[in-house]
C-alpha cells in the first residue's frame, strides 16, 4: 500500500522538474557556415562564446548544457544570412556565372569562385545560356555526415554591345555562315 501511495502522491525523495531551456540567436555568413565560426552571445548579464560547427543552416540549434540563466541549457538558434553570389539548397550551392560570347561559342576554361577557392570549369564549344554544370564536392559540408554537397553553376552568356561597323559586318557574315534554325519553332 505504501508503494502505491508514494507512486500516486509523490512520497519519498522529491524529483526535480526539468529545467526550461533558454534561447539566443546567432546570425552568421554563408562563409562562416562553410568553415565553422565562433560567436559571442549575450545571455542575461553574461557573454558566452559559442562554437558553431561547419555545415549549419538557418534553424540549426547549438546546445550549451547548463550555460543559460540559473544553470539552464542554452540553445543558440542559427540564422545564415543571404549571400550575394550563392544560393543554398541543403548541402548544395547554386550560382550564376557570366561568360563571353567567345567563351560560350568556342569553349574555354573559365575560373569559378567557390567557398573553397577558385576552380576551373571547362566550357564545351556551343555552351548555351542557362546550362548548368555540376561541380562535385564544391558545396556546403554536411552537418551530420561525411562529405560535402555540390555546386551548380548556371551559365549566363553576355553578348557584345556597341559593335563597330566592321564588327557588325563580321557578325552578319558569321551568322549567315552558321545558318541557325529558328529556336521558336
Topology:
Elements: H1 2-9, E1 22-28, H2 30-35, E2 37-43, E3 46-52, E4 61-64, E5 74-80, E6 87-89, E7 92-100, H3 101-106, E8 108-113, E9 118-123, E10 132-135, E11 151-158, H4 165-178
Parallel strand pairs: 1-5, 7-11
Antiparallel strand pairs: 2-3, 4-5, 6-7, 8-9, 10-11
Notes on the structure:
The chain has 185 residues and is α+β, with helices and mostly antiparallel strands. Helix content is 18%, strand content 37%. The protein has four helices and eleven strands. It has helices at 2-9, 30-35, 101-106, 165-178; strands spanning 22-28, 37-43, 46-52, 61-64, 74-80, 87-89, 92-100, 108-113, 118-123, 132-135, 151-158. Strands 6-7-11-10 form a four-stranded mixed beta sheet.
Task: Offer a concise description of the structure.
The chain is α+β, with helices and mostly antiparallel strands. It is 18% helix and 37% strand. The model has no long low-confidence stretch (mean pLDDT 89).
